[in-house]
Design a protein that fits this description.
Blueprint lengths: L1 H31 L6 H18 L7 H27 L6 H23 L4 E2 L9 E4 L2 E4 H23 L1 H11 L1 H6 L4 H27 L1 E2 L3 H16 L4 H21 L4 H16 L15
Antiparallel strand pairs: 1-4, 2-3
Helix pairs in contact: 1-5, 1-8, 1-9, 1-10, 2-3, 2-4, 2-8, 2-9, 3-8, 5-6, 5-8, 6-8, 9-10, 9-11, 10-11
Protein name: Branched-chain amino acid ABC transporter permease
Keywords: Amino-acid transport, Cell membrane, Membrane, Transmembrane, Transmembrane helix, Transport
Membrane topology: Multi-pass membrane protein
Length: 299
């Protein structure tokens, strides 16, 4: 029983990490119709920014308020990078999907190469605050505290993004701008500013995933964002490219399948099981789990 509880909770922790990454992808694609392959680069920048700040930024550190300052610095670095990418790269390419893909793929390769050139290719030990070290007991299972933290942060992010999509003026403006940008602009609304805000929020979510992913894995590497981005894309496709709720459900599903398959079968088979789930969903529900709600772009 304790083993099953451990697999479920750790699977939820992994699913929370996948959601942190995939939510930004879903937000940017669902509201802006931009397929951003550079999303993993924002994740890597957030991870390395947090790692650097924890060791070198005055006032920051691996524990208590110091780590919160380091985390804030990492998220801010990822948000700034996303904002600059939207302003300098994506904005001139709205409506030109082929060029968007080529540009963001190029960035996804360039940023890890830059990080590797600065800090090397070897994994760097990520600082873990004392508060999230060790385990907590749940039904006889010893649950790592960092998994619990990931779950709580993912729930908070889901709530915040849902409110932004469905309850704020900016969410409405962006959805309307995607449908008919000329009409919204004619009403005197600056759609470009709203698009930049959405892209920055997506980058912040990715950077947060990078920082907390460092807690999950214990290390950061230049290619960590690229490897996690693969699962993020799988989650977005399974959940529905425009549905935040579908993204959350798919994140949990993918992580649980991966955890149970890796434990009860051959190690590494979990990735194959995830691909099988992806194939089944594509064959049975075109548009993903939330296909019936995809037109809303808010659920």
């Amino acid at each position: 029983m304790s083993t099953v509880v451990l697999l479920i909770v750790t699977g939820l922790g992994l699913g929370a990490l996948y959601f942190l990454i995939a939510s930004g992808l879903s937000l940017i694609f669902g509201l802006m119709d931009v397929l951003n392959f550079a999303h993993g680069a924002f994740l890597a920048i957030g991870a390395y920014g947090t790692w650097w700040a924890a060791g070198f930024l005055p006032g920051a550190g691996p524990d208590g308020p110091g780590f919160l300052l380091a985390l804030t610095f990492g998220v801010a670095a990822g948000t700034l990078a996303a904002t600059l990418v939207e302003l300098c790269v994506i904005r001139p390419l709205y409506g030109r999907h082929r060029e968007q893909i080529l540009a963001t793929v190029g960035l996804s390769l360039a940023v890890p190469a830059l990080l590797q050139a600065i800090w090397g290719a070897d994994p760097l030990t990520f600082p873990k605050p004392q508060a999230v070290r060790g385990t907590v007991d749940l039904l006889g299972a010893h649950i790592p505290k960092d998994r619990v933290l990931l779950i709580l942060v993912a729930v908070a992010l889901f709530t915040a993004l849902w409110l932004f999509n469905s309850r704020t003026r900016y969410g409405l403006i962006v959805r309307a701008g995607v449908q008919d940008r000329a009409m919204v602009t004619a009403l005197g609304i600056d759609v470009r500013r709203s698009f930049t805000l959405v892209f920055a929020i997506g980058g912040a979510a990715a950077a947060l995933a990078g920082a907390l992913g460092g807690l999950y894995y214990g290390v950061v590497t230049p290619t960590q964002g690229m490897s996690l981005l693969i699962f993020a894309f799988i989650v977005v496709v399974i959940g529905g490219t425009t549905s935040l709720t579908g993204c959350a459900i798919a994140s949990v599903t993918v992580a649980l399948v991966q955890q149970f398959a890796n434990y009860y079968t051959v190690a590494g088979l979990g990735d194959i099981a995830v691909v099988i789930v992806l194939a089944v969903v594509l064959l049975t529900r075109q548009g993903g789990l939330a296909a019936e709600k995809s037109a809303e772009r808010v659920a």
